[in-house]
Amino acid sequence: MTRAALALLLPLLLVIPVAVAEPAKTPKVLVIGLDGARYDKLLSADTPNIKALLNRGYGARSALYGSGMAQTSSGPGWSTVLTGVWPDKHKVKDNSFAGNALASYPSWLERANTANPALSTYAAVDWKPISDQILRTGQDRKYVLDGDTAGYTGSDEKITVDAEQHLRTNAADASFVYLGQIDIAGHSNGADSSQYAAAMRTNDAQIGRLVSAIESRPSYASEDWLIMITTDHGHTAAGGHGGDSPEERMTFVISTGSARPAVAPKLVDVAASALKHLGVSASLDGYAIGTAPVDPFDSATLKPRQDETGVPASVLGWTHQGPAGWTVTTASSMPQGVAEWQGWSFTTDDFWTRTAPSQQREANVRARGVFAVADPDEWDDKGSPSSRGKFDSTLASPAYDVTGKSNVKLEYVSHYLQEGTQRGTVSVSFDGGPEQVVRTHNTNGLAQQISLDVTVPQGARTAKVSWRLFEAGNNWYWAVDAPRLS
């Protein structure tokens, strides 16, 4: 190239734009708790601010545990929301908080504060036990009122005013705001009442003010806000909670952001989502929304009731046809019983728990979406087939590739209730060879996460896993979810 040509080219090179990465936005989290708010009523009420947040993000109904694990009351509910672990860990069973293990399972605010003391943490609540029991430490600033004494309508308004000021002017990295009047309206007038809907309208307007306070921050454009709304339990139509009905167990998670999970999140996911957004790692029962492991059972196509006439016809919830590669085999000697439970079935919490409430099926909290169930108790409810033979059914996985491995880890969620001679086995077969039992279930084990180390024979290329429930009459059940071999 001649000097003259180079002289002509240089000015062009100098004006070529260079891509400059935008500075990362500062993560901020606000979790809003609406005590006793039923999700179906929230959606049907005049709640434009909540619906605007839904349109910006994601929302879904979820379900609580039941009496097999804890009451559907505020103590266990808010402990679960704020700690990110289930009641079998935090040990809050009711509103007495007796025997709790909250010191071992701190709130997500305290975890954030411990991991990064520079974060500004805040809580505003007017149900005092949240402050006294769950949020004892870990907040740089805490505003507490006693709604039980002063009344929740006025207290919620004071909470809103304080939270507005904090969110508008403070660093406000991590905040929790609780509003209680919906629950009081539910107790006094029932979930079907105009008073319950009016309390939702009032809290919705207060939420709108909190969002406006955030959006008016001078630094808002450089911030990345995650706003979540949730509840601690539902309400019966007549008012009240604490039991195992679907209405009392009804909870929800609403979250801004881009995550669109295929399976509805659970209450333990609120804390996990808040901490992940803040860049804080923690080992919890929950997953940040959109990060729960993929489960093959969730692809099963479910159908409405057949023999289980107590379940509404609108609730899709069972099939014996598993996902691709999964098989269900029942022994030829097994008599015919209730169609839905004639051997292993794929089902959901909403369907399964309706078949026989308050028998600890509700405590199957570590299962998500669709899971597999062998239920001799319900199978026996048509013609008492156990008087003629035993329940004996096997759920088998596809073949997993184990080429070159000397050992593998088998993981699954197990919810097992024992009675009589009933027992369950987990077996592994390599390259189509004989099954080797790697775990026997014959004692109660509710909502367990099972992890087994399995030795792979030299030269083996495939492994197939089987779950068998047998020697069962009118006994109990076994639920399995999230199987994984790695």
TrEMBL record:
As given in the record, the signal peptide range reads 1-21
Q: Known InterPro entries for this protein? A: Alkaline_phosphatase_core_sf, Phosphodiest/P_Trfase
Q: Which domain of life is it from?
A: Bacteria
Q: Which organism is it from?
A: Lentzea indica
UniProt key word Signal: yes
Keyword Signal carried by entry: yes
Q: Print the keywords alphabetically.
A: Signal
Q: What is this protein called?
A: Nucleotide pyrophosphatase
A Pfam short name: Phosphodiest
